[in-house]
Design brief:
With about 230 residues, this protein is mostly helical. It is about 70% helix and about 0% strand. It has four helices and no strands. It is flat, with a radius of gyration of 64 Å.
């Protein structure tokens, strides 16, 4: 005898379980409009975020300004160090050279002063009042030699030490150039010029007229030839 028919063999129990579980979920529909409290809360949150962003911006601005000031000071430090290193190095070189020249000039002055003192003592040591007729030539020759040596010392020192030549004479100021004289007739009017011309030429006109009159009289007194 055939087995009895089992109706449950064709039923998917898993599908029925999933359908039953989904049947309990709410059906999705349109979202509700936001309430006044939600809008106010979101506005407050947005204002708070803007305030935080503004504080962060201000902090960044201060940090940027501090960094720019630091960069400026670093650049000033680098430029100042390079500038002053160059100036001080050049100044030391110039001062060392000037000090060397001054020391050498001072040594030359000291040596020249000693030579001047020696030459001066020799000149002051000449006692011409004690010369006699017998030693006059000899003493005179010796005195002239002392003076000539002193003159050589003096001329040599003048070449080495310009201070011995005294202050240099100031160059003469050029003589002021006199303004060019205006022409004597430049400021006269045309009428005055005509009068002056007439005064200069009328004697010539008188002489010419007299000559013409004399010539006419001679022609009138000459006999006519027929």
């Amino acid at each position: 005898m055939a087995a009895e028919y089992d109706a449950t063999e064709f039923i998917d129990t898993d599908f029925e379980a999933r359908s039953a579980s989904r049947a309990g979920e709410p059906v999705a529909g349109p979202l509700p409009a936001p309430t006044r409290e939600e809008v106010d809360r979101k506005v407050v949150e947005a204002q708070q975020k803007l305030a935080e962003l503004k504080r962060a911006q201000e902090e960044l601005e201060r940090e940027r300004a501090a960094l720019e000031e630091l960069r400026r000071r670093q650049l000033e430090f680098q430029n100042g160090r390079a500038e002053m290193t160059d100036h001080l190095t050049r100044g030391l070189g110039l001062l060392e050279e000037a000090e060397f020249n001054a020391r050498r000039e001072a040594e030359q002055m000291s040596k020249t002063m000693a030579e001047f003192r020696t030459a001066l003592q020799k000149i002051q040591g000449i006692r011409d009042e004690t010369w006699t007729k017998e030693n006059f030539q000899q003493e005179l020759t010796r005195a002239l030699t002392i003076i000539e040596n002193a003159r050589m010392e003096w001329n040599s020192a003048r070449l080495k030490l310009p201070v011995l030549n005294g202050p240099s004479a100031a160059p003469e100021a050029p003589a002021p150039v006199a303004p060019a004289a205006a022409p004597p007739l430049a400021d006269l009017s045309f009428g005055k010029l005509c009068k002056i011309g007439l005064g200069l030429t009328w004697p010539l006109l008188v002489v010419a007229l007299a000559a013409l009159g004399a010539l006419a009289a001679i022609l009138l007194t000459m006999p006519s030839h027929r």
